[in-house]
Amino acid sequence: MTRNIYQQRIAELYPDVEPRHVEAWMRLEFSTLDHLQFTVDLLAPYVAMARDFPRDSENLARSYGL
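Predicted structure:
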């Protein structure tokens, strides 16, 4: 599967997590991701959600078509 630009950046910073899951959690809070600087600090809480709730993360990613 081809990763979008957000998922590529997430994977660069956190290679051990599914970037689709992180993106999905971020989309719950932000209407668009275009204005964000993808840094370790910004991504940390969403990475934690993706790690702690893998089943919910997958369901959420699918609901966004990721």
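Summary: The helical segments are 5-13, 19-29, 40-52, 54-63.
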